[in-house]
Design a protein that fits this description.
Elements: E1 3-14, E2 17-28, E3 32-36, H1 43-50, E4 58-63, E5 66-67, H2 73-78, E6 81-83, H3 96-103, H4 108-111, H5 118-130, H6 146-157, E7 164-168, H7 176-191, E8 195-200, H8 203-209, E9 212-217, E10 220-225, H9 227-232, H10 234-239
Parallel strand pairs: 3-8, 3-9, 6-7, 7-8
Antiparallel strand pairs: 1-2, 1-4, 4-5, 9-10
Helix pairs in contact: 3-5, 3-6
Length: 243
């Protein structure tokens, strides 16, 4: 399969601490790939480098084979790359409908009181329906429960019609019922043809969802492959499961 995302020798340090250590891997177009590792292994730092929230110290990021010299979040979003964060990033003072409107590439029109198109309004209503948030459409996002906030953030990633979505621990801190709901949304997103890179700390979730799993430990890649093979890898058992 053709690689949509390539990470080549990426390194990122903070002072004397190496958070990401010469990481190299690729994410195939149309795949659902998992990125896992113990706390402090560099997963979120690597996500931030890939999506332009942090500069790398060295290495390359390529999208569709094209070198991205200075990854920029806004530019990447326009190229079809969207992401979520460990803590849901929403606008608490805006309604759910307004949050989704702002996630549309021309969502700035709403801030100028310029009406968005009928097609975009229909997309917003559809996203609210898909994520079970329609009854709360005109409520302030700050009134949502933590799990509902995760759903709203997930919904916002779809408004730009992404080709690649990076999900940073979407199930962290939510109850088992919400975990199942989020898993179903991830599957549905992947089934539409969107490439997904999923950071998780729960190995069992990646085993259920992913075709390929990448494992980091202390910033370095220690294993990569099908879930069952990764599960049996001695380095993974030692680093992640504490065997």
């Amino acid at each position: 399969m053709t690689a949509m995302l390539e990470v080549r020798g990426v390194t990122k340090s903070f002072g004397g601490v190496v958070a990401v250590d010469h990481c190299t891997f690729s994410v195939a177009a149309g795949s659902l790939t998992g990125l896992i590792g113990p706390n402090g292994s560099g997963k979120t730092t690597l996500f931030n480098v890939i999506t332009g929230y942090l500069p790398s110290d060295s290495g390359e990021i390529r999208l569709d084979g094209r070198l991205i010299r200075k990854p920029d979040p806004t530019w990447l979003y326009r190229q079809g790359v969207a992401r979520t964060f460990q803590n849901a990033r929403i606008f608490p003072e805006l309604t759910l409908r307004e949050n989704l409107a702002l996630a549309i590439p021309a969502g700035w029109r709403m801030l100028l009181n310029i009406a968005i198109s009928r097609a975009d309004r229909e997309r917003i209503d559809e996203a609210l329906e898909i994520f079970g948030l329609s009854p709360l459409a005109d409520h302030r996002a700050g009134e949502l429960s933590y799990g509902q906030s995760r759903l709203l953030e997930f919904a916002t990633t779809l408004m730009g019609r992404p080709r690649l979505v990076l999900l940073d621990e979407p199930t962290a801190g939510v109850n088992p019922i919400m975990i199942e709901i989020l898993e179903n949304h991830i599957r549905r997103l992947h089934e539409t043809g969107v490439t997904v890179l999923l950071v998780e700390h729960r190995l069992e979730i990646l085993m259920r969802l992913c075709e390929t799993v990448i494992v980091l430990d202390q910033g370095a890649l220690i294993a990569e492959g099908p879930p069952e093979r990764v599960r049996r890898d001695p380095k993974v058992l030692d680093a992640y499961l504490g065997a």
